[in-house]
Request: fold
Amino acid sequence: MPENQAESPLPIVVVGAHLTGLPLNTELTSSGGHLLKRCRTAPDYRLFALPNTTPPKPGMVREPGFDGPGLEVEVWSLPSDAFGRFVARIPAPLGIGKISLDDGTAVSGFLCESHAVAEAEEITRFGGWRAFLAERAQ
Reply:
């Protein structure tokens, strides 16, 4: 791989506690990350409030054929070396997979193992983690 390619920044989709202004966002900013855009997923994603997580976190699961509202997400850019360190620290049941966005692109981002949402509250109807947190705060 050419040296400049190895150093190029990599995009990552965040859906929960890593969003701008939320508790884990500093993990992105302190690693040299910057916000590329705010957008939505394709409609076949569901969102769940994961129990017993600190800080509170959502789990996003893709369900082909599901016709939801699409979920509000952010796409961040991380230097490639920081991307690897960031991904290595992600705790189960979260992981990284390809996220289909509403513009037809696919970007690596946070997904959740399906077993972890079996007992979790589904919050897809809110359209995103921020809207769920705002509703819960009222």
Remarks:
- The chain has one domain: 3-137.
- The beta strands are 10-14, 34-40, 45-49, 58-62, 72-78, 94-100, 106-112, 121-122.
- The chain has four helices and eight strands.
- Residues 3-137 form a domain with the Hypothetical upf0131 protein ytfp fold (CATH 3.10.490.10).
